[in-house]
Design goal:
This protein is mainly beta and 207 residues long. Helix content is 14%, strand content 51%.
Length: 207
């Protein structure tokens, strides 16, 4: 039986990267000024919708992954601002949370689909005026219609983290480019439990 715990033991680099990313997001969030936090959770004036699309692929031998699964991804997103104007200098930015409803069209080993629900924490660096990098991480449930060898359950969980870059085109639209690490497994609830460790490249737009 392969569990998340075994996967993390087999992938110390992934574990360290995830720990550093989440620690960094928490530290930056804690650095927000108290006056900037007021009513941030209920103020939706700076919230944004987005739509991303792209390609993903799992890699056999990466952790406990045994199958090469290729997907075309469509990701509707809602981004809610939590803390604005955090920090100063190069790490000046804002903290937000994102809700995503991804649809993954599986191209191989068979044509099928997976759907999910993601809750992601995000930090966007605003020192640059036109190009703004951001970091994000989180996860949620995934339901798989695909018959992927090694995946013993239709109901799974996922966690992911990545980096992105946004470019302002107009006051109401921004172009997005993202690279993600994406993990799917059933957490050992059923056997077999061969996870999917994938990379995803996405492009999108906010509105």
């Amino acid at each position: 039986m392969v569990t998340h715990r075994h996967m993390w033991k087999k992938n110390p680099g992934v574990r360290q990267a995830a720990f550093l990313l989440l620690s960094f997001l928490l530290l930056l969030s804690a650095a927000g000024r108290p006056d900037s936090a007021g009513a941030a959770f209920i103020d939706t004036s700076k919230d944004r919708w987005g739509l991303l699309g792209g390609y993903g692929q799992s890699f056999p031998g990466w952790g406990q992954t045994t199958e090469r699964v290729q997907t075309i991804d469509l990701v509707p997103r809602y981004n809610h601002l939590i803390f604005d104007d955090i920090g100063s200098g190069w790490y000046r930015g804002f903290h937000s949370i994102m809700l995503e409803l991804p649809v993954h069209l599986v191209l191989s080993p068979e044509v099928s689909s997976m759907i999910g629900l993601n809750f992601l924490a995000t930090y966007t660096f605003t020192a640059g005026q036109e190009l703004r990098p951001y970091l994000f991480g989180g996860g949620g449930p995934v339901y798989s219609f695909a018959d992927v060898p090694g995946m013993g359950d239709e109901v799974n969980g996922n966690y992911q983290f990545g980096i992105g870059l946004e470019q302002e085109t107009t006051r109401s639209h921004k172009l997005l480019l993202e690279l993600r690490y994406h993990h799917i497994s059933n957490g050992g609830s059923k056997e077999p439990n061969a996870p999917l460790n994938s990379c995803k490249l996405l492009v999108g737009i906010t509105f």
